[in-house]
Amino acid sequence: MDVAEFLKTSGKGKPANVYLFCPHRAPKAREATFEPLLAHRAVDDVVARHVEPSMRDLSYHLYYGDETAASDVVDAARTLPFLTEYRVVVVHAADKYESESSGAALHAYLESPNDTTILMLIAPRIDKRLRLFKLCEKHGVVVECPEMHEREAAAWARNEAQARGKTLGANASVLLVERSGTKLSDVLNAVTLVCNYIGTESTIQESDVHAACADVAEDEIWTLTDAIAQSDTRTALLTLRTVLDMNKSEFEILSTITWLIKTAYFAATANASRVKPFLANKVRPLAEKLGKEKFRDAFALCMNTEVMLRSTGVDRTLALELLVIKLAAPRRPARPSRAS
């Protein structure tokens, strides 16, 4: 089953006790592809259907395979739900449990999953020859989440704009995808930028896409990025003020900062081929400043800032300033090893 079919049929009938969200390899493709945003939305759909917000602390568990022992996941999955029909357990980076040494406990559980638990495993990569995949296929439902082609991504962008009360024409959507690429997180960021750009207007024109999606290339944004990369807090804060004085919304600025960090992450990892050379060169100093080990912390800071902006009465400018200060903080030098 692919993720599009899953989303169409979700909520019809009894849910499976095990779902595996994994990559898909097209018949003549060299390698499988995985679109994490689609997997996350599918998981969110199941959670919304089966977890009451008031019961979330009692019936919902979230784990990361690279941080959690398989036995801890199994303990949660085997626990009977309390005052709810199902206990929902979500595991990101579930491919970490492919080997017997790390995943034996989970493999044993998958032989006979609890019928009052919905276990959702998200695996950005999977080996279909190994036991984890075979057990999920036999005792659960495998949901493949491939990346979209340009035409599909353009249609997806139109739907996202429509969900925000905007009309994104066919030509404008094609242009948007040409500028953002087909990675849906980047497409979503572009849709957000252009929707914020047109304000109360209802229709997004090609000229709007040209103007809004060029914002990440403005001198002020790159100055801010470079200042963070150089741990120049003063320049970073002054530049942030300049951008705010241009009547850019706090959400638009946060979205752009998050996008730049994500692009820096791709440029610094095995995903570098997904980043255009121009962007790779522009974000390389930021990637070098953060280092691979600090990207998760940077993403967490951005996510926490978004929560503050949306759900608290905090001064939004102050929240962005705190984010910039934390991102620009100098990296701590490695501690010298003691001579033996």
Indicate the CATH topology of the largest domain.
Rossmann fold
Radius of gyration, taken over Cα atoms and rounded to an integer in Å = 22 Å
CATH class of the largest domain: Alpha Beta
CATH A-level architecture of the largest domain: 3-Layer(aba) Sandwich
The low-pLDDT segments are none
Helical/strand content category: alpha/beta
Q: Which strand order spans the largest sheet, edge to edge or round the barrel?
A: 2-3-4-1-5
User: Could you report the average pLDDT, rounded to the nearest whole number?
Assistant: 87
Biggest pleated sheet? 5 strands, parallel
Number of strands: 7
- What percent strand? 5-15%
Compute the number of structural domains: 3
Please give the alpha-carbon distance between the first and last residues.
57 Å
CATH superfamily of the largest domain: P-loop containing nucleotide triphosphate hydrolases
* Oligomeric state of shown chains: single chain
**Helix percent band:** 55-70%
Shape: globular
Written overview of the protein:
This protein is α/β, with parallel strands linked by helices and 340 residues long. The chain has 3 domains: 3-144, Rossmann fold, CATH 3.40.50.300; 150-213, Helicase, Ruva Protein, domain 3 (Orthogonal Bundle), CATH 1.10.8; 216-328, Zinc Finger, Delta Prime, domain 3. It is 56% helix and 9% strand. It is built from 16 helices and 7 strands. It has helices spanning 3-9, 36-50, 56-59, 70-78, 100-111, 131-139, 150-163, 170-180, 184-198, 206-212, 219-229, 233-245, 250-268, 277-290, 295-311, 316-328; strands at 18-22, 60-64, 87-92, 117-122, 141-144, 167-168, 203-204. The strands form 2 sheets. Strands 2-3-4-1-5 form a 5-stranded parallel beta sheet, sandwiched between helices. Strand 3 (87-92), helix 5 (100-111) and strand 4 (117-122) form a beta-alpha-beta unit. Helix 4 (70-78) runs parallel beside helix 5 and helix 7 (150-163) packs across helix 8. It is globular and about 60 Å long. It starts with a helix and ends in a 12-residue tail after the last helix. The mean pLDDT is 87.
